[in-house]
Design a protein that fits this description.
single chain, alpha/beta, Immunoglobulin-like, seven-stranded mixed sheet, six-stranded mixed sheet, 12 helices, 28 strands, 23% helix, globular
């Protein structure tokens, strides 16, 4: 019996040793994914450490949150730098740092105030995030999906690219369902469709190159590979060598990673940060800024869209490593000036955005112009190569202000409140009190525009009563007519312009620009003087003495 027990013990020890020697792919198996259509993909990406389950389950058919989407992308890319946490709804959680890293890379932006980490992400949002992260070249302006018309304009180019590359397929009835929530299994399937090679160990590798190649480990040499899709050098990859390779796709370099070529290696694609652009300047030089337009256009295309009002378009710039960004903007393809550190510096108060001013529409019809943006990143005395983008911007004639009466929940008109509708969906409200009146926000303006928000409000309010202006935040659809309220008439009545402290300098720039262009002020100094005389910060203000009588 003793001999038998010894044999049994030895058998258990042998089995245990064999189990530890098995490939790690066998180490994780979720109880609720057995027999699932994405079981193999889920096991593969679980083994790679990109996805995790909870209490032994993966919940493959459950919607994925924006936070978990950011976590997955961060794990794939190995981002190393974080944005400042200026999101009001982002506290301390497991996803906080990943979201800030993904935001720094320009992959997730939120609305400027909130990032909505616990919201479920839609299919078109998920596709757009992955497109920005993995630098997928924008596709066409439409798809063959039966519900193509339901795809948002800002996501269309990304969805089209994913369909053209075979990354996505429609659900039943050839429907993409862009507004539906994407499931956890669908996200994993997307990753698996997109990424053909995921290199996590040092040494020499010859990727298949049929899809996107991700290099995660340091000390990697790519040998005799033909790579036509994006090659991502992750944030921990360092110097990646390419020997006798043909690389025609984009090379995305995260953090301090670099591609060192030798032999007959050729590179035909652009290189840059996680959202595209070009870079260079040696292994210690920062990656060149990447760029994409903010929503209201197609984020990954070179077209900023067409709208029924004149406005200023915005482009977001990002750069790895916290480098300083310098840029130039000019009308005409490739016409921006040569970049130096004497060029415009990308200041933080600009909310990480630069402006492309849309051409003024003529009475005859739309006007389209091409604008060129060039940018460089500078850090520790090293300069990136120049990133270059051309954008087509179209304007068509806009309508005039419309005045109406807002209604309460019961459909009754609200007394002492007037809706002054600005262009498109942006709305300005006039509130009349006993001794004063106030206007909430002052939106789009063009020097040749017939609309004048102040004059419209004055006709309603009458003479002798100051009209104060309250600015919620200094985006163009809230501020461009601010200068109209700084006129001599309103100033003499003691009217004020109220704004939060953070937006003071941004608003000043708009006042100077549009106040001078409209010939209301002789120069920028006069505009600043009028602005300073009437400016108040919201933090010191109460409105109880002039609230409308019937409002709560």
């Amino acid at each position: 019996m003793k001999i038998k027990r010894k044999r049994i013990c030895a058998w258990f020890i042998t089995v245990a040793m064999l189990l530890t020697m098995l490939p790690s792919a066998f180490a994780v198996s979720f109880a609720d994914t057995r027999g699932h259509w994405a079981e193999d993909e889920i096991n593969r990406w679980s083994d790679r450490g990109v996805i995790q389950g909870h209490d032994g389950d993966f919940e493959p058919n459950s919607p994925i949150t924006r936070a978990d989407m950011a976590v997955i992308i961060d794990r794939v890319m190995d981002y190393q730098t974080k944005a400042e946490n200026n999101f009001a709804d982002l506290g301390t959680a497991y996803y906080t740092d990943p979201i800030l890293r993904v935001a720094q890379a320009g992959v997730m932006q939120g609305d400027g105030k909130n990032v909505r980490p616990k919201d479920k992400i839609t299919r078109e949002e998920a596709v757009s995030m992955l497109a920005r992260a993995l630098s997928v070249t924008a596709g066409g302006s439409s798809t063959n999906f039966a519900d193509n018309s339901r795809i948002s304009s800002w996501a269309m180019a990304n969805v089209a690219a994913f369909a053209e590359n075979g990354y996505i397929a429609g659900r039943s009835g050839n429907r993409f369902e862009p507004k539906a929530n994407i499931t956890r299994a669908e996200v994993v399937k997307l990753l698996d469709n997109m990424i053909s090679d995921y290199i996590t160990e040092s040494g020499t590798a010859t990727p298949k190159g049929t899809g996107i190649v991700i290099v995660k480990a340091s000390g990697v040499t790519l040998n005799k590979a033909k790579l036509s899709s994006t090659v991502v050098l992750g944030g921990k990859a360092g110097e990646v060598k390419a020997t006798d390779c043909e690389i025609t796709g984009k090379v995305v370099k995260i953090h301090n990673s670099a591609l060192v070529t030798s032999g007959s290696t050729s590179t035909g694609g652009s290189t840059g940060g996680s959202s595209g652009g070009s870079s260079g300047g040696g292994s210690s030089a920062p990656a060149a800024p990447s760029a994409y337009p903010l929503p209201k256009g197609q984020e990954t295309s070179k077209s900023l869209g067409v709208f029924n009002y004149d406005m200023t378009y915005f482009v977001t710039l990002t750069a790895q490593d916290g480098a300083d960004i310098y840029y130039e903007v000019a009308e005409g393809a490739d016409k921006a000036a040569v970049l130096t550190t004497a060029s415009k510096k990308f200041e933080t108060y600009q909310y990480r955005q630069i402006e492309i001013t849309q051409p003024t529409a003529s009475a005859e019809g739309p006007v389209t112009k091409t604008y060129n943006v060039k940018a460089i990143a500078v850090k520790n005395g090293r300069t990136s190569s120049v990133a270059n983008w051309n954008y087509d911007v179209t304007s068509i004639p806009h309508h005039e202000l419309k005045v109406g009466a807002p209604k309460d929940w019961n459909g009754n008109e609200v007394p002492d409140v007037t809706l002054i509708q600005d262009y498109d969906s942006d709305k300005m409200y006039l509130v009349q009190g006993t001794d004063r009146a106030m206007v909430l926000d002052a939106g789009y303006f063009d020097a040749d525009d017939a609309a004048n928000l102040y004059e419209t409000a004055r006709k309603i309010v009458g003479e002798g009563k100051p009209i104060d202006l309250i600015i919620g935040h200094p985006h163009p659809d809230h501020v461009q007519m601010t200068h109209q309220f700084l006129c001599a008439e309103n100033k003499a009545l003691g009217a004020k312009v109220y704004i939060n402290e953070r937006g003071i300098e941004v608003l000043r720039d708009y006042v100077k620009r549009f106040g001078v262009s409209s010939k209301m002020f002789a120069d920028e100094a006069a505009a600043s003087e009028a602005y300073d005389a009437q400016l108040e910060t919201l933090k010191t203000v109460t409105f109880t003495t002039w609230a409308a009588p019937s409002l709560t």
